[in-house]
Amino acid sequence: MNLGTALVTGGASGMGLAIVERLAQDGFHVVMADRNAELAERESRALRQLGLAVEYRVVDLTDEAATRALVRELVPLSALINNAGVFDERKFFDVDSGDYRRAFEINLLAVATLTQEAALGMAPGAKIVNIASRAYLGAKNHPHYVASKAALVGYTRAAAMELAPRGILVNAIAPGLIDTPLLRNLTSERLAAQLALQPTGRAGQPRDIANAVSFLAAPHMDFITGQVIFVDGGKSLGGSGA
Ligand SMILES: NC(=O)c1ccc[n+]([C@@H]2O[C@H](COP(=O)([O-])OP(=O)(O)OC[C@H]3O[C@@H](n4cnc5c(N)ncnc54)[C@H](O)[C@@H]3O)[C@@H](O)[C@H]2O)c1
Questions:
Q1: Which residues of the chain have pLDDT under 50?
Q2: Does the annotation mark 145 as catalytic?
């Protein structure tokens, strides 16, 4: 089955890589876009060796002109998965405007550029999935990240309204703690504190997110838009389960 082209940003690592693999298994021709050339080349080659239709492009998604050019080269997209993002921890009173700018540049502005450019060329039935974070509900030690992901949820809802008349559905996934290289930005004490808040007592796996993306990007999914699906082992319930 050929489901058309899917673009997965930040697809060379972590949950992006799991999403690339899953969408290729589902029948999409998948393009992973990442700024890490070495990883993108290696991981896409490994997936092609498994017989999957995966290619890669190297791009820094904070470069607006390069990002627009990438999407124009690939239109029409059947699915756009806005997964690339950055995360770092900093105490509330140490965060400066540069931290906010860096977080918003990739976690929000790149998504807006990609969405706008992709939607212009999308046919009815196309899907956009944004990887937000459970942290948008509120979290300590990364206000810049929390604010950027809350903005992404707002953008998801706005884009869903704007694009519904074109038959394009836009949703977000809010992952909880997921076992990816991004977690290396947490100290071991902070990681333990985060795990203590998990009702399920463990971090999720990248494939847990890939499963949800697969559902939201599927051709037969045609009546859900503007929603946020929490894939967080129950963390958003607000207690540890104790
Ligand atoms: N891991 C978690 O616990 C967790 C939880 C909630 C949300 N998220 C979100 O999930 C998404 C994926 O995170 P991950 O954990 O897989 O992280 P990761 O660091 O393993 O992967 C992120 C990928 O994005 C790429 N990237 C970052 N900035 C880029 C840029 N400017 N241009 C091109 N590529 C860029 C990186 O090179 C990397 O390959 C992010 O948006 C993150 O905020 C992660």
A1: 241
A2: yes
